[in-house]
Amino acid sequence: MSNDWNSRTKLVHGGIRRSQYNEVSEALFLTQGFVYDNAEQAEARFLEAGPDEFIYARYGNPTVAMFEDRIAGLEGAEDAFACASGMAAVQGALMALLKAGDHVVAARALFGSCLFILENILPKFGVEVTLVDGTDLEAWRAAVREDTRLCFFESMSNPTLEIVDIAGVAEIAHAVGALVVSDNVFSTPIYSDAIAQGADIVTYSATKHIDGQGRVLGGVILGPKEIIRGPIEAFMKHTGGALSPFNAWVLLKGLETMDLRVRAQTATAQHLAEKLEGNPALSRVIYPGLASHAQHDLAMRQLGAGGTVLSFDIRGGREAAFAFLNLLEIAVISNNLGDAKTIATPPAFTTHQRLPDDQKQILGITPGLIRLSCGLEDPQDLLRDLEAALEHATGGQG
Length: 398
Ligand SMILES: *Cc1c(COP(=O)(O)O)cnc(C)c1O
Fold this sequence. Notes:
Blueprint lengths: L6 H7 L25 H9 L14 H14 L3 E5 L2 H12 L5 E5 L4 H10 L6 E5 L4 H7 L4 E7 L11 H10 L3 E5 L4 H4 L2 H4 L3 E5 L13 E5 L1 H15 L5 H32 L5 E5 L9 H7 L6 E6 L2 H11 L4 E2 L9 E3 L11 H7 L5 E5 L5 H15 L5
Parallel strand pairs: 2-3, 2-4, 4-5, 5-6, 10-11
Antiparallel strand pairs: 1-7, 6-7, 8-9, 9-12, 11-12
This protein binds pyridoxal-5'-phosphate.
Protein name: O-succinylhomoserine sulfhydrylase
Function: Catalyzes the formation of L-homocysteine from O-succinyl-L-homoserine (OSHS) and hydrogen sulfide.
GO molecular function, one term: transferase activity, transferring alkyl or aryl (other than methyl) groups
């Protein structure tokens, strides 16, 4: 792949490996294993496999390798390891890089499963975890120690869309020799520049914007070759979190259109946020692209856009929020994001249901909060759908 290609070119042509048939579309190598010409070749490959030599699909596969190279090129990472899901990626990055006795500092506002790994799994293996307010650089500075090995955060948090200052945290982490791992799902691979900003490792759930059409699970860990082909590959290939070749093929086709989709979804999110701000049925609209967002300047500096998701708080709590959801005609009630279909989620009752009430309060996950992942529908149709549902759900207040 040519390094001077711009993103859209990389997303269409990056990483391609053509078979002897010279097919146009990426080939789907739906195979677990590979045949060796002779016993000597088998022995040599187990000793050291070259970049285009495969052994077993848990270690690597040509379709999966195309996906890894394409997303690494986009992210500006030296290498990538594809995983079965976003959680396989987060788990792989953390387990591969940590050992008993290490200390981790992490932002408190996290996807539920990420929080589970930090609070329930890592401590079982002797890793100590300190949770901080990810938006407060002083809190990161106060929490890191000589034995801090890793800092972890979602660069844009779910569902309240707080922005973590990647460069700021990286400076604090690197000063004590800790690695920075950024879960970048909400920032999206299109707007992310996390590695240039100081992140050592970036993870994505490819289930979100990379597929973008609600079909498959996938994930990826990106970073320096030394780490990806060192501890990450060793952990992933022996523990079974490999991406299926079929899913890699779907995700490769997703990457081809991702730039167009994410930019259109972001334009819709910006439009809806602007139109909904001030709606009397809402007590707040949270969107990093609005000047009213507490970290608007940081979001513009770090990402240059507000992303594809907005959140808003409906007056009247659970009852009004449920009435609103049940009145929607275009947006569907679900919990994925980054999809072509607009998805409305009530986090307090779904993705964050199990979080204790005091934690919900700290994180701003109120009963009336709705997370809206903007899809590819006509923005005017969506606005009408949202406004009509708000008006009827809140008895005409809207
Ligand atoms: C969805 C998501 C994950 C997990 O990804 P899966 O593909 O569902 O395993 C991790 N982090 C964030 C921020 C997510 O949104």
